[in-house]
Design a protein that fits this description.
By secondary structure, this protein is an alpha/beta fold. The protein has a single domain (5-119), classed as Response regulator (Rossmann fold), CATH 3.40.50. It has five helices and five strands, in the order βαβαβαβαβα. The chain has a five-stranded parallel β-sheet with strand order 2-1-3-4-5, with helices on both faces. Helix 3 links the parallel strand 3 (50-54) and strand 4 (78-82). The radius of gyration is 13 Å and the shape is globular.
Length: 120
């Protein structure tokens, strides 16, 4: 069985590394990007199964990335992550195309569970 390819987009190297490590332990193939711009340049973008997208990043923020994904008709499902989470931001992310919104820190198995639901 092919491992699901997950792209983690976060400007914090420690968060990227922690998410990569924990998701690989869950059986996913994980690649990382440090910015929205890096995501659009990534060779695996259109072949990936899910994007884990941080909100607060320099340059393009997570909402900007969602808008560009929609504009370019890239339909890879996105899990939007941020902390702290407001209802307004959650609603905006969902309207912009996120499949779900999770609040940092991601300490339990909820991220892996959501990825499994989305990629099943």
């Amino acid at each position: 069985m092919r491992k699901a390819i997950i792209l983690v987009v976060d400007d914090d190297p420690a968060v990227r590394d922690a998410l990569k490590f924990s998701l690989e332990l869950e059986g996913f193939s994980v690649q990382t990007c440090g910015s929205g711009e890096d995501l659009f340049a990534h060779r695996a973008l259109k072949q990936s199964d899910c994007i884990v997208l941080d909100y607060k990043m320099p340059g393009m923020n997570g909402l900007d990335v969602l808008e560009r994904l929609a504009a370019e008709a890239i339909t890879v499902p996105v899990i939007f992550v941020t902390g702290p989470l407001s209802r307004n931001l959650s609603a905006r992310a969902m309207e912009a195309g996120a499949r779900c919104v999770l609040e940092k820190p991601l300490l339990d198995k909820s991220l892996a569970e959501r990825i499994r639901e989305i990629t099943a």
